[in-house]
Amino acid sequence: MTDLESVLNDRLAVAFAAVAGAPADPVVRRSQHADFQADGALPLARRLGRAPRDVAADALARADLADLVATAQISGPGFINLTLRDDALAGLLGVMSGDERLGVPTAAVPETVVIDYSAPNVAKELHAGHLRTTVIGDAAARILEWLGHDVRRANHIGDWGTPFGMLIEHLLDLGETEAMQELSVGDLNGFYQAARVKFDADPVFAERSRGRVVALQAGDDTTLRLWRLLVDESEKYFLAAYDKMGITLTADHFYGESYYNDMLDPVVDALDGLGLLRESDGAQCVFPRGFTGRDGEPMPIIVRKRDGGYGYGATDLAAIRHRTQDLKATWLLYVVGSPQQQHLEMVFQCAREAGWLAAPARAVHVGFGQVLGADGKKLASRAGDTVKLVELLDEAVIRAAAIVREKNPDLDAETRAEVARMVGIGAIKYVDLSSDRIKDYAFDWDRMLSFSGDTGAYLQYTYARINSIFRRGGVVPDRSAAVLLDQPAERALAMELLGFAAVVTDAAATLQFHRLTGYLQHLAGAYTAFYENCPVLKSEGAVLASRLLLCDLTARVIAQGLDLLGIETPERM
Ligand code: ARG
Fold it and tell me: Where would I find the DALR anticodon binding domain in this sequence (predicted)?
């Protein structure tokens, strides 16, 4: 265990419990006055009706800290300031260096986690709006998997419903070959819009489309075959975009809305059996407790529409039931934009009432704000259309290539292209993950691609620079070398490195990835200060070995941290 905060917390908890005669939280956190401080004496003193400084002194006297703590002081009203022993820090860094996982423990209770993310709609373009769910969901999948959870990626694509009537009829009008050609060049929006225009303008076409929906729902063979053509073509297109973007979603993770078709009838029956189904305006509805509209009336999830068809809500109910009952998942994440918050909360509440979402199982809406243009308005192309996601990715890589060429003209063309890809895609992911996800953020290319500041490129650059030290010196760091922390900058870097485990655990629990990016920035800052103050290749013997180990650990933590966010690290740039 290299997580200092937890180690100190555990040790002090024993002492606090002895003072309190019952469990009491020592409340340990990083401090500006010392390495750590424990503030738990204050609330405990209130509980016991004693003076806080006495309680702090009492706890300290009972605490077994000698091997870890150099000085412990009581300050102010009863804070305990703790400064760690250098040899303790060095020892923990040694453990961290020898550990593949860099001191990050796997989850104490591994769970089956379903992560519902990306979820584009068939025959529609992936646009900038899909960026966030895809990037955030993928980071969640990576981090939870690394912590040992059984992660099930669920790409809930919109592959069913009334639009398919007009899409299939349009496909027939064009002829299969022609239609497939149009779709395979990736002009999904054009196809969709053409169908839409005909549907609105031509009553005969509209009638055919409605008939086609009925045939589709009835499972007509020809109709299903044509539907499959559309779905397959879109899926190919989505996969190509994921590949370009370095997203871990594959063909195995498509669980589109149609996947739940056979589960819809049983879900309705089950809800009916539980007495949760009510008719309203000819539709079968559930009214989950606690949701009322502006008029004070309870709000429905429409399960079965008046025409007998099932809607988006029914599918989500079937999906949640499937996830907890069949997959036995206990942690359900829905990485979906904030506008769908109420819909999801209603689905969760309904599932609770139906007994499909009972402890320890829980569902979490991982919401997020919008992507804005540099002008602060919704991101749009020059013509005012929504921006295609692949165009955004391509632009990032092109811009990154220009910057990389300028920064390092010596890179050969192949390496430069590879670095540009990592930097461009990384910049897009980083900007998405580095702010509180609930907030909107603005796309600002120059800032995003800068090699300094709070950017992915800065972290990648720090990593590459460390590698260049090893290359220049022709040295391979010895991961079992003894760590020496004589210089303040070495000690400060050590403290940052030892914070990795806590921050990963925290980011996984809260799915607030900006805490991890913020940590990596601090680490890179501490490394820079170390590098400026402590010569590495010019030092010798044990000092050289120790400093190389610190460089190596920094590079490993940056690479691992970025990897958890889905961002690659070039060896040189
Ligand atoms: N396809 C939906 C959309 O584009 C998102 C689906 C989100 N997931 C879910 N289980 N409802 O809005």
Answer: 459-573
Spatial distance between the Cα atoms of 87 and 510, rounded to a whole number of angstroms: 33
Task: Tell me the DSSP string of 484-543.
Answer: ---SHHHHHHHHHHTTHHHHHHHHHHH--THHHHHHHHHHHHHHHHHHHHS-STT--HHH
Tens digit of each residue's pLDDT (9 = 90 or more) over 222-247: 999 999 999 999 999 999 999 999 99
pLDDT cut 90: percent of the chain above it? 87
Domain span holding position 193 = 163-246
Q: How far is ligand 1, taken at its centre, from the CA of residue 16, in Å? A: 48
Instruction: Check whether residue 137 and residue 217 sit in a common domain.
Output: no
122 and 263 belong to one structural domain = yes
Number of domains in the chain: 3
336 lines ligand 1 (CB under 6 A): yes
Q: Outline where 311-388 has alpha helix (H).
A: 312-321, 341-354
**Shortest-distance atom of ligand 1 to CA 130:** 4
- pTM for the whole thing? 0.94
Distance separating alpha carbons of residues 452 and 262, to the nearest angstrom: 53
What one-letter code names the amino acid at 294? R
ipTM above 0.90, yes or no: yes
What spacing in Å lies between the alpha carbon of 337 and ligand 1's midpoint? 9
Identify the CA nearest to 473 among candidates 418, 537, 408, 389. Answer: 537
**Where residue 58 sits, what CATH number does that domain have?**
3.30.1360.70
264 and 151 both lie in a single domain = yes
The answer to whether the CB of 134 is under 6 A from ligand 1 is: no
Look at the block and give the residue holding tokens 């060896």: 571
- The pLDDT, as a whole number, for residue 42 is 96
Q: Do 275 and 346 lie in a common domain?
A: yes
Calpha distance 390→338 (Å, rounded)? 23
- At 73, the amino acid letter reads Q
Sheet holding 283-286, edge to edge: 277-280, 283-286, 301-304
170 and 151 co-located in one domain: no
Window from 191-205, 357-371, 380-394 with minimum mean pLDDT: 380-394
* Ligand 1 site, residue 126, Cβ cutoff 6 A: no
Strand locations in 91-141 (E): 112-116
Residue 115 confidence class, pLDDT cut points 50, 70, 90: very high
Both structure tokens of 443: 């796309």
CATH number of the domain to which 338 belongs: 3.40.50.620
Residue nearest atom 4 of ligand 1, based on CA coordinates: 120
Answer whether 156 contacts ligand 1 (Cβ < 6 A).
Answer: yes
Domain assignment present for 24: yes
To test ligand 1's pocket by mutation, which of 121, 152, 156, 316 has the most ligand atoms within 8 angstroms of CB? 156
Residue 264 and residue 361 share a domain = yes
Task: Give the atom of ligand 1 at the shortest distance from the alpha carbon of 316.
Answer: 10
Nearest CA residue ID for atom 11, ligand 1: 316
Q: How much is the pLDDT for 375?
A: 83
